[in-house]
Design goal:
InterPro entries: DHS-like_NAD/FAD-binding_dom (IPR029035), ETF_a/b_N (IPR014730), ETF_a/FixB (IPR001308), ETF_alpha_N (IPR033947), ETF_asu_C (IPR014731), ETF_asu_C_CS (IPR018206), Rossmann-like_a/b/a_fold (IPR014729). It holds the Pfam family ETF. The protein is of the alpha/beta class. The protein has a 9-stranded mixed sheet with strand order 7-6-5-8-4-1-2-3-9, with helices on both faces. A 5-stranded parallel sheet has the order 11-10-12-13-14. The chain has 2 domains: about 170 residues, Rossmann fold (3-Layer(aba) Sandwich), CATH 3.40.50; about 110 residues, 3-Layer(aba) Sandwich (Rossmann fold). Helix content is about 30%, strand content about 25%. The protein binds flavin-adenine dinucleotide.
Length: about 325
């Protein structure tokens, strides 16, 4: 007999459906430490309901597997160790994820919307013949997600009817899962023989003593108003006083003032620090797309009409070459 649902048993049904979900989070790491965005992806996975498993694939990643097993909300850690997983190449990780999916039949597969996740999950989705949903900022239900469109100017709510939902998660939209309190089991998985269509040669990472841009609590960013790469020294001095990361607008990157790993915005990094200080940045929508979720925004610009003042909590209409050194000197 078919029963009509009232509000109470609709809630029970939602709970029941959520219990049957099971999500695989693909961990991003360097064999030694977990990349923080994985913790945000774990929180998103927990919101889907059901069990959360984490895949840790690497060359010598026992330490990371151990870290993840303690993360709150993770029930199982799947570990795959092989030389072919060096550098996290999507060509090698995809068959592993497909084999894991075949074994465990997850309802969702997700990763952080970082270069790693954006590189990997579309390939996984294509191989599973499902449409991926990228850069989600909210989970309405196990099949309905919110993501931004038009450089963050509109929100799109997407219902996904695929048998397995493949998602990347915007790190700044979900709290990081707690790194203690979990007690996950561990299991080994493998994908069979290596694909060997591509080879990891090397990576040259920028070394910096400053905090990482996407996870820093304070970010000082400079734009074309800085006029040269040398003048960014003003921002580095200020950042050192605040233990801040330094970012930049695309115009500053394109002009060659700073490297492109410092770019904040639609085609750069998405940040949401406690404090974002925009110096000599006009506030184009593509820049705002990367920083407008910051808790407090301070803008320093000599043009009172600059659009950045529309999103700023505090604005200083002034010449940056005068006020930035003054501000730096005033900070103890
Ligand atoms: C598809 C696409 C993607 C894009 N992605 C990004 C992105 O990811 N990130 C991004 O930032 N942009 C992006 N852009 C570029 C974006 O549209 C803007 O061109 C760029 O953000 C402008 O950078 P800016 O504010 O530094 O430069 P400008 O717009 O030239 O602004 C410089 C500001 O400095 C101020 N200024 C000058 N001198 C001083 C001084 N002495 N003291 C104080 N203020 C001063 C000026 O008043 C001005 O407001 C993208 C564009 C496109 C089309």
């Amino acid at each position: 007999m078919l029963r009509t649902l009232n509000k109470t048993n609709l809630r029970q049904l939602t709970g029941l459906i959520q219990r049957f979900q099971s999500t695989l989070v693909v961990a991003e790491h360097n064999n030694d430490t977990l990349t923080p965005i994985t913790l945000n992806a774990i929180t998103a996975a927990s919101k889907l309901g059901g069990e959360v498993s984490c895949l840790v694939a690497g060359t010598n990643c026992a330490k990371v597997a151990e870290q993840i097993s303690k993360v709150k909300g993770v029930t199982k850690v799947l570990v795959a160790q092989h030389d072919t997983y060096k550098g996290g190449l999507p060509e090698e990780l995809t068959p592993l994820i497909l084999a894991t999916q075949k074994q465990f039949s997850f309802t969702h597969i997700c990763a952080g919307a970082s270069a790693f996740g954006k590189n990997l999950l579309p390939r996984v989705a294509a191989k599973l013949d499902v449409a991926p949903i990228s850069d989600i900022i909210e989970i309405k239900s196990p099949d309905t997600f919110v993501r931004t469109i038009y450089a963050g100017n509109a929100l799109s709510t997407v219902k996904c009817n695929e048998s397995v939902k493949v998602l990347t998660v915007r790190g700044t939209s979900f709290e990081a899962a707690e790194t203690v309190g979990g007690n996950a089991t561990s299991e080994e998985v493998s994908s069979g023989s290596p694909v060997e269509v591509s080879e990891w040669l090397e990576q040259n990472l920028t070394k910096s003593d400053r905090p990482e841009l996407t996870s820093a609590k304070v970010v000082v960013s400079g734009g074309r108003g800085l006029k040269s790469g040398d003048n960014f020294k003003l921002l580095y001095n200020l950042a050192d006083k605040l233990n801040a990361a330094v970012g930049a607008s695309r115009a500053a990157v394109d002009a060659g003032y700073v490297p492109n790993d410092m770019q904040v915005g639609q085609t750069g990094k998405i940040v949401a620090p406690e404090l974002y200080i925009a110096v000599g940045i006009s506030g184009a929508i593509q820049h705002l797309a990367g920083m407008k979720d910051s808790k407090t925004i301070v803008a320093i610009n000599k043009d009172p009409e600059a659009p950045i003042f529309q999103v700023a909590d505090y604005g200083l209409v002034a010449d940056l070459f005068k006020v930035v050194p003054e501000l730096t000197a005033a900070l103890k």
